[in-house]
């Protein structure tokens, strides 16, 4: 099942690669937040098939930024730890170690989400951006997507509790 998630992430990375390159070359990231890699809770979780799409009735424009401290539910650290739970500590094929850090928060369809910036450590030399995840404030869902220059796209449900 982790291979399916990896392929989903790889596809998303390919789709946003050009946007990411332009973004990285024109807008310097405010900071590269790395997450504490402590173990997530021991709750039993299920990984969702990558073909489960986000509700198509909500437009991208319906995703609005909100202050991180206004999110009601799990903490930023718990949201980052859920990404480690769903994706693991490192990529199985490359062996690159994942890094997840909260970069913002959004509201979509009345629900709040932490925006988690995902990177991986390439050849133990530098972090490279690979995409974004949206972790629901209730800690029950993770969507893949992108968060570039204030534009947010929630693409695929990749994990569900």
Strand content: 35-45%
Number of helices: 2
What topology, given as strand order, has the largest sheet? 1-7-6-5-4-3-2
Return the structural class: alpha+beta
User: Cα distance, first to last residue?
Assistant: 15 Å
Q: How many strands?
A: 7
**Estimated helix fraction:** 10-25%
Instruction: Flag low-confidence runs.
Output: 10-60
Radius of gyration (Å): 15 Å
Structure, explained:
By secondary structure, this protein is of the alpha+beta class. It has one domain (2-160). Helices cover 23% and strands 36% of the residues. The protein contains two helices and seven strands, in the order αββαβββββ. The chain has helices at 2-26, 76-87, and strands at residues 46-47, 64-66, 97-108, 111-122, 126-136, 141-148, 151-160. Strands 1-7-6-5-4-3-2 form a seven-stranded antiparallel sheet. A hairpin with a 2-residue loop joins strand 3 (97-108) and strand 4 (111-122). The longest helix has 25 residues, at 2-26. The chain is globular. The two termini are 15 Å apart. The relative contact order is 0.23. Mean pLDDT is 76; it is low at 10-60.
């Amino acid at each position: 099942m982790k291979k399916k998630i990896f392929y989903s992430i790889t596809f998303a990375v390919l789709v946003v690669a050009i946007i990411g390159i332009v973004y990285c070359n024109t807008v310097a990231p405010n900071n590269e937040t790395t997450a504490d890699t402590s173990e997530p809770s021991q709750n039993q979780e299920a990984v969702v098939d990558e073909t489960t799409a986000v509700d198509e009735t909500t437009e991208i424009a319906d995703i609005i930024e909100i202050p991180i401290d206004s999110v009601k539910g799990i903490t930023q650290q718990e949201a980052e730890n859920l990404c480690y739970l769903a994706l693991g500590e490192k990529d199985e094929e490359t062996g690159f170690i994942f890094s997840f850090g909260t970069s913002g928060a959004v509201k979509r369809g009345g629900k709040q989400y932490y925006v988690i910036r995902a990177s991986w450590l390439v050849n133990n030399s530098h972090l490279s951006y690979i995409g974004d995840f949206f972790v629901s404030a209730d800690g029950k869902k993770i969507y893949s997507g992108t968060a570039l220059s204030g534009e947010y796209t929630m693409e695929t449900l990749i994990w569900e509790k």
